[in-house]
Amino acid sequence: MSGPVTTADVPAEHVASHPEACPLEITESRRTELGSVVIRRALPRRGRRTVGSWCFVDHLGPAAVTEEHGLDIGPHPHIGLQTVTWLLEGEVLHRDSLGSEQLIRPGQLNLMTAGHGVAHSEEATGRYRGPLHGVQLWVAQPADTRHGAAAFEHHPELPQVELTAGVGTVIVGDFAEASSPARRDTEHVAVHLDLRAGTIDLALVPTFEYALVVFEGAVTLGSRTLEPGHLGYLGTELDHVPLRVETPTQALLFGGVPFPEPILMWWNYVARDRSEIDAAHAEWRAGSDRFGTVASPLERIIVGPPPWASGER
Ligand code: MN
C-alpha cells in the first residue's frame, strides 16, 4: 500500500514545510487507483507536504477484494521513512526483506522502518474475501535514524481511550494519557477515532501541528464540516479541538512537532536531496543487497528514473 509519490502529488523539488496557524484548512485529496483499489491521497499535496513528520497519507478503499486479488503490490523499496498500516476492514499480508510475513487485521498496526533501505510487498491473504478499507501513512525519519537499520513491528493490540462520544485508539505516540508501544523516532501521534453522534473535545499538544482525515461519516468544527476525501489541517498552538458528530464516524487525528528539515520525496523514497534518491533508485534497479529480497510471488516493481534525470526511461 505504498503508493508511489509522483509529480502529480507534489513537484519533485525541495520545499520546506511551513506550518501556519489557521483554523481548519480543507484540501481535497487526489483520487488515484492502486490495482482495483481506489486511493484518496490526503498527503502530500501541493499546498501541504507534511503534518509533523507525517509525509504521506493514502486512504485505501473501501474496495472488494478476493482471496487472490487485493492490493497486489509487489516488492518495492523504501528509504528514510516508516510505513504505518491501519485497517478498518479486511486483511492484508505484508512480506518484507527482513523476512517478516505478517497478516494485518483491523485494530492492529504494522509499522515498518526503512532506514537505509528495505523492500516489502502487500498481498492478498489467500483466504480473505470481502471489503478492504484502511489507510497507509508514512513518517519521515529524522537525521539520526534515517541511515540506520530497517525494522518491522506488528502490534496486535493498542491502547484505547474513552471519549465523550466514542473511543480513540492510540496507534502511535501519546494521547489523553495513553501511550502506544510502537516505535517512534520523532514527536508524533496518530489516533483512530470511532465516534458516535455527540460532541467530542480532543486534547492536543500546542507544540504539535495536527490534521484530520475522515474515513466514514463527517466531523464538524465550528461552521466547517470535513468529509471523506479531504485533509482537514488544524495548525499548531491548539490545546484542544471540539468536534461535533451527527452520524457514526471513523476518522484519524494525526500530528506532531513540525518536521525541522526540508524533505525530498519521489516514488517510494524520502530523502533530502536528489543524489540520495538517484543512488537508492540505481541500487533498486540493479537488485543490490541494499534492499534485500522479499519472498513474494509478485513481481518486483521497477520504474524509470526520477523526472530530473535525463536519458532513458
Ligand atoms: Mn510500500
Write the layout of secondary structure elements.
Layout: E1 25-28, E2 30-34, E3 37-43, E4 54-65, E5 73-78, E6 81-89, E7 92-96, E8 101-104, E9 109-113, E10 118-123, E11 130-140, E12 151-155, E13 160-163, E14 166-172, E15 174-175, E16 178-179, E17 188-195, E18 198-203, E19 209-216, E20 219-221, E21 224-226, E22 230-235, E23 240-245, E24 249-256, E25 264-266, E26 269-271, H1 274-286
Antiparallel strand pairs: 1-22, 2-3, 3-4, 4-11, 5-10, 6-9, 6-11, 7-8, 7-10, 9-12, 13-14, 14-17, 15-16, 17-24, 18-23, 19-22, 19-24, 20-21, 25-26
The protein binds manganese (II) ion.
Short summary:
The chain is mostly beta strands and 313 residues long.
Number of strands: 26
What ligands can be seen in this structure? manganese (II) ion
Q: Give the termini distance in whole angstroms.
A: 24 Å
Q: Strand percentage, roughly?
A: over 45%
Mean pLDDT: 93
Please report the number of helical segments. 1
Overall shape: globular
What is the topology, as strand order, of the major beta sheet?
A: 1-22-19-24-17-14-13
What is the rounded Rg? 18 Å
Give the uncertain stretches in residue-range form.
13-22
Q: What is the percent of helical residues?
A: under 10%
Order of helices and strands: EEEEEEEEEEEEEEEEEEEEEEEEEEH
Main sheet? Answer: 7 strands, antiparallel
Oligomer description: single chain
Class from helix and strand fractions: mainly beta
Describe the structure.
There is one protein chain. The protein has 313 residues and is mainly β. 4% of the residues lie in helices and 47% in strands. It has a 7-stranded antiparallel sheet, with no helix packed on it. Strands 2-3-4-11-6-9-12 form a 7-stranded antiparallel sheet, with no helix packed on it. The protein has a 4-stranded antiparallel sheet with strand order 5-10-7-8, with no helix packed on it. The model is unreliable at 13-22 (pLDDT under 50). The structure holds manganese (II) ion. The site of manganese (II) ion has 6 residues, from strand 5.
